[in-house]
Specification:
By secondary structure, this protein is mostly beta strands. It is about 0% helix and about 35% strand. The chain has a five-stranded mixed sheet with strand order 1-2-3-4-5, with no helix packed on it.
Amino acid sequence: MTQNNGKPIYKGTNETTDYNEITDTGFYLIYNKGVNGPPSINASFMIVISYTSTLLQTVYDTAGRKSYYRIKKKLILHGLNGHEF
Protein backbone atom coordinates (compact mmCIF):
# COMPACT_ATOMS: atom_id res chain seq x y z
CA MET A 1 0.00 0.00 0.00
CA THR A 2 3.02 2.27 0.45
CA GLN A 3 6.74 2.10 -0.19
CA ASN A 4 8.69 -0.18 2.17
CA ASN A 5 9.62 2.85 4.31
CA GLY A 6 5.94 3.77 4.82
CA LYS A 7 6.03 6.76 2.49
CA PRO A 8 3.47 7.18 -0.32
CA ILE A 9 4.21 5.65 -3.70
CA TYR A 10 5.83 8.58 -5.53
CA LYS A 11 5.07 9.72 -9.06
CA GLY A 12 7.60 12.48 -9.79
CA THR A 13 7.88 15.59 -11.91
CA ASN A 14 9.84 13.82 -14.65
CA GLU A 15 6.90 11.57 -15.58
CA THR A 16 3.33 12.02 -16.73
CA THR A 17 0.91 10.12 -14.54
CA ASP A 18 -2.27 8.72 -16.08
CA TYR A 19 -4.81 8.61 -13.25
CA ASN A 20 -6.77 5.94 -15.15
CA GLU A 21 -3.81 3.56 -14.86
CA ILE A 22 -3.43 3.80 -11.07
CA THR A 23 -5.63 0.91 -10.01
CA ASP A 24 -3.58 -0.89 -7.35
CA THR A 25 -4.71 -0.34 -3.77
CA GLY A 26 -2.39 2.12 -2.08
CA PHE A 27 -1.43 5.65 -1.05
CA TYR A 28 0.20 7.78 -3.74
CA LEU A 29 1.91 11.19 -3.98
CA ILE A 30 1.54 12.46 -7.54
CA TYR A 31 3.84 15.41 -8.08
CA ASN A 32 2.95 16.22 -11.69
CA LYS A 33 -0.09 17.49 -13.58
CA GLY A 34 -0.83 14.10 -15.08
CA VAL A 35 -3.69 13.19 -17.39
CA ASN A 36 -7.23 11.99 -16.71
CA GLY A 37 -7.05 13.57 -13.26
CA PRO A 38 -8.95 16.34 -11.51
CA PRO A 39 -8.84 19.76 -13.17
CA SER A 40 -6.46 22.44 -11.87
CA ILE A 41 -4.43 20.14 -9.59
CA ASN A 42 -0.69 20.02 -10.22
CA ALA A 43 0.23 17.84 -7.22
CA SER A 44 -1.95 15.51 -5.17
CA PHE A 45 -2.28 12.71 -2.68
CA MET A 46 -4.37 9.80 -3.93
CA ILE A 47 -5.88 6.89 -2.03
CA VAL A 48 -6.88 3.91 -4.17
CA ILE A 49 -9.02 1.02 -2.97
CA SER A 50 -9.51 -1.80 -5.43
CA TYR A 51 -11.61 -4.83 -4.57
CA THR A 52 -12.97 -7.39 -7.05
CA SER A 53 -14.98 -5.33 -9.56
CA THR A 54 -14.96 -1.99 -7.69
CA LEU A 55 -12.32 0.76 -7.82
CA LEU A 56 -12.39 3.88 -5.62
CA GLN A 57 -9.95 6.73 -6.26
CA THR A 58 -9.90 9.67 -3.85
CA VAL A 59 -7.65 12.65 -4.69
CA TYR A 60 -6.65 15.56 -2.42
CA ASP A 61 -4.59 18.56 -3.47
CA THR A 62 -1.38 18.80 -1.45
CA ALA A 63 -2.74 21.81 0.48
CA GLY A 64 -5.82 19.82 1.54
CA ARG A 65 -8.26 22.40 0.15
CA LYS A 66 -9.79 20.39 -2.69
CA SER A 67 -10.88 16.77 -2.90
CA TYR A 68 -12.28 14.61 -5.66
CA TYR A 69 -13.37 11.01 -5.90
CA ARG A 70 -14.63 8.56 -8.47
CA ILE A 71 -15.90 5.01 -8.36
CA LYS A 72 -15.58 2.59 -11.25
CA LYS A 73 -17.36 -0.72 -11.56
CA LYS A 74 -15.99 -3.41 -13.85
CA LEU A 75 -18.53 -5.61 -15.56
CA ILE A 76 -17.64 -9.26 -15.07
CA LEU A 77 -19.40 -11.72 -17.32
CA HIS A 78 -19.45 -15.40 -16.42
CA GLY A 79 -19.48 -18.15 -19.01
CA LEU A 80 -21.21 -21.48 -18.73
CA ASN A 81 -18.36 -22.94 -16.67
CA GLY A 82 -18.16 -19.93 -14.35
CA HIS A 83 -15.02 -18.56 -16.01
CA GLU A 84 -14.62 -14.80 -16.31
CA PHE A 85 -14.20 -13.32 -19.78
